[in-house]
């Protein structure tokens, strides 16, 4: 291709070499990007199309055949299977409990830790440490701490005269335990994002406000908080989407129980697909999850654009 | 004089209050690690005894039994070599693609970037079912291939690509142009000029990718079934008696063995590691 072009344009050498250069660059670029692109098509786009197709079929385990059933799996989820709404309810409770708690704690830690004082690095290091720890390890230790009567937490509570519940055996307490331990594990991430945002705020703003006689709370309410707006938005969406992905933590801590009390969408997909082998139904669930995440992502993009 | 003194005193008092409050909040962040290690040294009988951070009897045997209960050394090695492989591959693949997206002009570049970006947020649960069938079709179930391929080319790898692209965009172009003048090929410019200049981004990608692979759970759970091929997180959840009840003393000893080395590296390189996460978080 390149060769024919140069031959055709022999009269205008400049233009020809420029063209071939440009094409050469494009070809090299495609080569550079091809491993990523090929992997993306094989391991992401293909499977995404496949899961959309699976969600319209009924998978027969015996014959390993897929039969087209239209929107049956979706109707199953939305109208016939009460488990689905129970799972949605759990996922919403999980997100609604986790996101505000995580963000409030992250900001409360970031406010003092964005400054400079002796020991600030130690505190940052401590609050971030669970982030680098595996969720399975974290869940194992907390499951151990939250054991019924002999667990550490309940022994401590007993010493101050409180009869602690069997945390992981009662649905509501189990949900609360999973949320709180998850917040402790992940809050460090949002904390450093907030610290970075706080440190980017020019100090003059605060100094000027102080000269005008503003109180600490007023400065936070009318200067710091509005300036943190974009960061808060990003953190909110990332944390919400992250809450839908939580699987390992729940798998290890409660196994989705007790009485399905901590069965959230990610776990439900795994359970239906890989424990009950209901491939069509599990795929429909995966598609529902995909749509939810896409809506959240678009929501963030739209809000971000409006801000700028 | 006295006014400034009291003001200083107030400030000191204020700081002391903050420090104490932070110390209290830090308890649930630190204590689980201490309790994990301490319990790993306790016997099965003592482990639910009266709560004490110092074991009555240091049961070193737990740390040997861990290796007898299942091929824990092998599983440890599996996690390590898989994480190193995924990290190396991701660095290579993502910096190539990131460079092309940042520096090279070609039709469809913007479209491809948008196309890739759409995958950033999608959880792995969405595509895991077809990926399982594909791997089974390719005969790769119960091998480590899925644990290497999926993280390298999935949303994780895409995130690395954008991190690299962002960094390349901020680099001065002049050096690369000079390299081209000196007759370096595109590959040469990428390898000899662009990569050495982007060490911070490469380090960030390496750290995050390594930790992600090291902590990966869903994929090993689904793709790997033989004990010899387990990775650490899977092995940790497997210290149970025949009825599925956890053997706490072994499980906590094993968990300590898995977590403590990472924590030590983290404590040494905390600044670098935290910055890496900040860098990727802002982009994500």
Explain what the structure shows.
The complex is a heterodimer of chains A (308) and B (284). By secondary structure, chain A is mainly alpha-helical. Chain A folds into 2 domains: 2-54; 81-307, MetI-like (MetI-like fold, Orthogonal Bundle). Chain A has 14 helices and 2 strands. Chain A has helices spanning 2-8, 13-54, 72-80, 82-113, 120-132, 135-145, 152-159, 171-199, 203-211, 216-227, 229-245, 248-253, 265-275, 279-307; strands spanning 57-60, 65-68. A two-stranded antiparallel sheet of chain A has the order 1-2. In chain A, helix 4 runs parallel beside helix 8 and helix 8 runs antiparallel to helix 11 (229-245). The longest helix of chain A has 42 residues, at 13-54. Residues 1-10 of chain A have low confidence and may be disordered. Chain B is an all-alpha fold and 284 residues long. Chain B has a domain at 71-238: MetI-like (MetI-like fold, Orthogonal Bundle), CATH 1.10.3720. Chain B contains 14 helices and no strands. Chain B has helices spanning 2-40, 62-69, 72-103, 109-117, 124-137, 145-153, 155-170, 174-181, 186-197, 199-215, 218-223, 232-236, 248-268, 270-283. In chain B, helix 1 (2-40) packs across helix 13 (248-268) and helix 3 packs across helix 7. Chain B starts with a helix and ends with a helix. Chains A and B meet through helix 2, helix 4, helix 5, helix 6 and helix 7 of A and helix 1, helix 3, helix 4, helix 5 and helix 6 of B.
List keywords for this structure.
heterodimer, A: 308 residues, mainly alpha, MetI-like fold, 2 domains, two-stranded antiparallel ribbon, disordered N terminus, B: 284 residues, 14 helices, flat
């Amino acid at each position: 291709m390149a060769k024919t072009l140069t031959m055709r344009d022999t009269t205008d050498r400049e233009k020809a070499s420029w063209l071939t250069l440009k094409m050469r660059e494009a070809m090299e670029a495609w080569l550079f990007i091809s491993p990523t692109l090929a992997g993306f098509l094989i391991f992401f786009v293909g499977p995404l199309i496949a899961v959309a197709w699976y969600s319209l079929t009924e998978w027969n385990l015996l014959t390993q055949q897929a039969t087209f059933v239209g929107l049956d799996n979706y109707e199953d989820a939305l109208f016939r299977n009460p488990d689905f709404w129970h799972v949605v309810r759990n996922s919403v409770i999980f997100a609604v409990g986790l996101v505000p708690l995580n963000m409030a704690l992250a900001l409360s830690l970031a406010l003092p830790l964005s400054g400079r004082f002796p020991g600030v690095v130690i505190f940052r290091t401590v609050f971030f440490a669970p982030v680098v720890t595996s969720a399975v390890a974290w869940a194992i230790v907390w499951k151990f701490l939250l054991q019924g009567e002999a667990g550490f937490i309940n022994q401590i509570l007993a010493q101050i005269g409180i009869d602690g519940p069997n945390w992981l055996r009662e649905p509501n307490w189990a949900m609360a335990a999973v949320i709180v331990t998850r917040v402790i594990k992940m809050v460090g991430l949002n904390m450093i994002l907030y610290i970075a945002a706080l440190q980017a705020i020019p100090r003059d703003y605060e100094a000027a406000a102080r000269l005008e006689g503003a109180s600490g709370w007023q400065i936070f309410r009318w200067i710091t908080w509005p300036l943190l707006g974009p960061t808060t938005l990003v953190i909110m969406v990332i944390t919400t989407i992250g809450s839908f992905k939580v699987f390992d933590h729940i798998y290890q801590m409660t196994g989705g129980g007790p009485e399905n009390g901590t069965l959230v969408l990610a776990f439900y997909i795994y359970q239906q697909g890989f424990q009950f082998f209901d491939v069509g139904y599990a795929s429909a669930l995966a598609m529902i999850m995909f749509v939810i995440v896409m809506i959240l992502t678009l929501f963030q993009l739209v809000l971000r654009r409006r801000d700028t | 004089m006295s006014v400034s003194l009291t003001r200083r005193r107030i400030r000191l008092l204020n700081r002391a209050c903050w420090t104490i409050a932070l110390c209290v909040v830090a308890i649930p962040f630190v204590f689980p690690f201490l309790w994990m290690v301490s319990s790993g040294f306790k016997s099965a009988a003592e482990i639910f005894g009266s709560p004490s951070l110092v074991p009555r009897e240091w049961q070193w045997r737990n740390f040997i039994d861990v290796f007898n209960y299942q091929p824990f050394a092998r599983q440890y090695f599996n996690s390590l070599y898989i994480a190193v492989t995924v990290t190396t591959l991701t660095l290579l693949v993502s910096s190539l693609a990131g460079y092309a997206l940042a520096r090279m002009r070609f039709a469809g570049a913007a479209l491809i970037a948008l196309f890739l970006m759409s995958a950033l947020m999608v959880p792995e649960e969405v595509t895991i079912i077809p990926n399982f069938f594909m791997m089974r079709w390719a005969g790769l179930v119960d091998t480590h291939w899925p644990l290497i391929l999926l993280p390298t080319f999935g949303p994780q790898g895409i995130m690395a690509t954008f991190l690299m692209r962002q960094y390349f965009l901020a680099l001065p172009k002049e050096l690369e142009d000079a390299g081209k003048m000196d007759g370096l090929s595109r590959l040469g410019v990428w390898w000899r000029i662009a990569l050495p200049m982007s060490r911070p981004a490469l380090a960030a990608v390496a750290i995050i990718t390594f930790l992600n692979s090291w902590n990966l759970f869903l994929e090993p759970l689904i793709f790997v079934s033989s004990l010899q091929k387990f990775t650490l997180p899977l092995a940790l959840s497997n210290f149970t008696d025949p009825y599925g009840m956890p053997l706490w003393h072994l499980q906590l000893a094993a968990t300590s063995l898995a977590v403590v080395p990472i924590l030590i590296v983290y404590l040494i390189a905390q600044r670098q590691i935290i910055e890496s996460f900040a860098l990727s978080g802002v982009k994500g």
